[in-house]
Amino acid sequence: MSKLLVETNEGVRTLVFNRPETKNAFDAELWGLFRDALNTASDDSNISSVIVTGSSNTFSSGVDLSSMTGEGGSEYEEPFETCIDALVNFKKPLIGAVEGAAVGGGATILLHFDAIFISPSAKIKYPFSDLGLAPEVGSSYLLFQSLGYQKAAQLLYESNPLDGNKYYELGLAKYVGEDFLSEANKYAHTLKEQSLSSIIETKAILKSFMQTDIAQARSMETKAMKKLFGSEDNLKAVEKFFNKKK
């Protein structure tokens, strides 16, 4: 079965991360599948919006660390970067339906969405200080923009998980509740009643205000990530991570 399930209902496309054995962690293949699905939906005139969710009561546990080690590491960077390009440039409403873990890349991608519908029991975590790494996907800028310097700094320094209620209280979600998926679908179909061409143009204008800052943040994050990846702190943190899983 595919690592990304694709369903379409009356012009609303739903993408489902489907690697339950890894809690829907991203490997190079899943990044590539997500990228292609975003680009296809963005250009398909029959698609009005996209909902992204995860299988098995989990959104995504983030990067599959095992896929970044050994030979797999060299295959990872291109699909990751081109997927984030597709995410940043997606033209239409992008809606997240989140339950369970949304960690690392599973959390940072949500900052690029237009609306998040979240379960109260969800666990959002930016684990970069735990792993001896830097933020990614422009999340440093997007958290700063949304929360201000101190809240963003504390969130990234401490790496403490946020439940769905806290995430909503921070203003990062449109809805929190057990009906998060049905409410996400209801919202997507409500937007269908609006002019899609108007929404596309409005989104392009709104995103233009952030375009330069997001690009700069991604560039700085990439440099910091390359500096830290393989460092003593990073290697100790990854070893600790894998020991926890044993």
Question: What does this entry look like structurally?
Answer:
The protein has 246 residues and is α/β, with parallel strands linked by helices. The chain has a single domain, classed as 2-enoyl-CoA Hydratase, Chain A, domain 1 (Alpha-Beta Complex). It has helices at residues 28-43, 72-88, 105-108, 128-131, 139-147, 149-158, 164-169, 180-191, 196-208, 211-228, 232-245, and strands at 4-9, 12-17, 49-54, 94-98, 101-103, 115-118, 123-125, 162-163, 175-176. The strands form 2 sheets. It has a 6-stranded mixed beta sheet, with helices on both faces. A 3-stranded mixed beta sheet has the order 5-7-8. Helix 1 runs parallel beside helix 2. The two termini are 27 Å apart. The relative contact order is 0.13.
